[in-house]
Each structure stands twice: as structure tokens, then as C-alpha cells.
Design brief:
8-stranded parallel beta sheet, alpha/beta, single chain, Schiff_base-form_aldolases_AS, 47% helix, Dihydrodipicolinate synthetase, lyase, TIM Barrel, DapA-like, schiff base
């Protein structure tokens, strides 16, 4: 099986902040070094997990500049250039390129919603004006537009897109995209953003995963990808089952939802593990505390991630 340029385990990096909401560079370094040392194949800065939607331009620049400095060329760095409309995405992408990004990741336009013609033109304009590989980020829950497999494949065949990061929850569309991509000569790198069912995506033929939980437990995801490459499907499933036990950090909390329960759980876990000095959340989201924090601690202890 050929290995595309962007493949393997490419975690969407959690952004650690100080209590004053500036970037916590020391914690950022520990997090990145830990994942790279575990053997990840790339890093995705400023994804949804990386607080792109909460970060102003100056904070985005700090996250990208410091992240690329810390990585120091050890793995490819993908940068989320996510904004409402095409011209803003181009601005972010040009800055990411100047800072040393290896690829950019962009969603369909949002807020001023259009149709498929506008989505296609959006990506074609990005390709014309950005001199970096572009991966489409398919996340309709946030941008309210779906990128159908036929459109993604056409853009891949035309050299507009280098890949797709699929967080759509549409397993049928992803399955068709993988199959038709293979028939077309594999123009796209296809990455799943669904960390709980990576084994199923690999069985379909995905090129890799973008699992937020790899911030907490990178090594099992790396071993799972290696088992996939080796055709050891029993081990692929076994590792997914182990990973999923840790994923219950998402559902043992009470009274929180959305970002607070997802990225909030990551930050809480990383703080408990000593990777992050703080578990500061972006305003107006509150950090997990009290019984919720202890519930996450118990999951980590029960699964050997954290000492008792």
C-alpha cells in the first residue's frame, strides 16, 4: 500500500494557555515533544481542538510560530486557516506559509452560506493564491455545509486539494470517498477525525487519523497505525478498544457540554498528568473542576495513564 505525503497519526494539537490567556510556551513544548517522541507522523495546529475559533490573529500567530519552532522540522506541520470567507482564509494561509507551515487546512466558507458552486470556487481560489498543499476540513456541524465525496474527489483529481480531514460523521460518504479515491489513483490523503472508530476508518482504507485524544495518549494511536500498515487487524481493534476506555474522559462529566466537555477534558487530563501547567480554557468557557475533575482523574488512573 503506497504511503501518501500526509498519512499516519496527525494529532490536532491542544493549545495550552496561561491564566492571562497568553500562550503557555513551556507546556506547549512538553506536549509537542511528548507526541513527536511517541512517533506521530505530523501535527495539526489551530484545528477545532487547537482553539482556532477562539483565537484572534495575534494569538493564532503565536500558536503557529511557537509550534513550528518547537517541532523544528521533525514532522510535517499542518495549520488550520479557518475563517468565514475566502479572503480571510487566504490571509491566514499566507501568514502560516511565512511562518513555515507544510500545509494548510481549510473548511468550506461559513456564516454567509452558499451552495456547492461557492464551496468549489472557494477551494479553487485558495489553490490559485496559496502556494502550499491544501486539505479540506469537512466538519458540517460547525460550518453547516457538507463537502460531498464527488466534489472532494474532483478537486483532488484537479490538483486543488491534497487531502481531506473528515470530521463529518458521515461514514457512508467517507467510505465512498476512500473507494473512489483509490480508483482514481489516490490523489487525496484521507484522514479520519473520529478518534473512537479509527479502526473502522482504517478498514475502509483511510490514510491516517487526526485524533484529539492522541494529545493524552499518543503511543496507542501510533501502534495502531503501525498494526494497520502491517495488516494486523486483530491488534488494530485491540488497541482501539484500549483507546476507547480512556475516551470516557468525555462522558464521565456532568453539567458541561460542547467545548467544555471535549477540549476541557483534554486540558484537565493534561494538567493532571503534569504536561500542562494550567487548564485555562478560552473565554467564556470554564475549566472543569470539582467532581468532574476527579471523574477524569479516575478514568486516567483506572487505565494506567496516571498513577494512583
Amino acid at each position: 500500500m503506497p504511503q501518501p505525503k500526509f498519512s499516519g497519526v496527525i494529532p490536532p494539537v491542544v493549545t495550552p494557555d496561561n491564566p492571562d490567556h497568553t500562550l503557555d510556551v513551556r507546556s506547549y513544548g512538553r506536549l509537542i515533544d511528548r507526541m513527536v517522541g511517541s512517533g506521530v507522523n505530523g501535527l495539526f495546529l489551530l484545528g477545532s481542538t487547537g482553539e482556532v475559533a477562539f483565537s484572534n490573529d495575534a494569538h493564532r500567530e503565536d500558536i503557529v510560530r511557537e509550534g513550528i519552532r518547537i517541532v523544528a522540522g521533525r514532522v510535517p506541520v499542518l495549520v488550520g486557516c479557518i475563517d468565514t470567507e475566502t479572503d480571510r482564509v487566504i490571509e491566514h494561509a499566507r501568514r502560516a506559509q511565512a511562518l513555515g507551515a507544510d500545509a494548510v487546512v481549510a473548511t468550506a466558507p461559513f456564516y454567509a452560506l452558499g451552495g456547492l458552486d461557492e464551496i468549489e470556487e472557494h477551494f479553487r481560489i485558495l489553490h490559485e493564491e496559496i502556494d502550499l498543499p491544501i486539505l479540506a476540513y469537512d466538519i458540517p456541524a460547525c460550518v453547516h455545509s457538507k463537502i460531498p465525496w464527488k466534489l472532494a474527489l474532483r478537486l483532488g483529481q484537479d490538483g486543488v486539494l491534497a487531502g481531506v480531514k473528515d470530521s463529518s460523521g458521515d461514514d457512508v460518504n467517507f467510505r465512498y470517498l476512500v473507494q473512489e479515491n483509490e480508483k482514481a489513483g489516490h490523489p487525496l490523503s484521507l484522514l479520519t477525525g473520529h478518534e473512537i472508530v479509527v479502526d473502522g476508518a482504517y478498514l475502509s482504507g483511510a490514510d491516517g487519523s487526526v485524533p484529539g485524544l492522541a494529545n493524552v495518549i499518543p503511543a496507542p494511536y501510533v501502534r495502531q497505525y503501525e498494526a494497520y500498515r502491517a495488516g494486523d487487524w486483530a491488534h488494530v481493534k485491540e488497541l482501539q478498544d484500549q483507546i476507547n476506555e480512556v475516551s470516557h474522559i468525555f462522558d464521565v462529566t456532568a453539567g458541561v457540554q460542547g467545548y467544555a466537555g471535549g477540549v476541557g477534558a483534554f486540558k484537565c487530563a493534561l494538567n493532571l498528568m503534569g504536561v500542562f501547567d494550567h487548564d485555562t480554557m478560552p473565554r467564556p468557557v470554564r475549566a472543569l473542576e470539582g467532581a468532574n475533575r476527579e471523574a477524569i482523574r479516575k478514568v486516567l488512573v483506572d487505565n494506567g495513564v496516571l498513577g494512583a
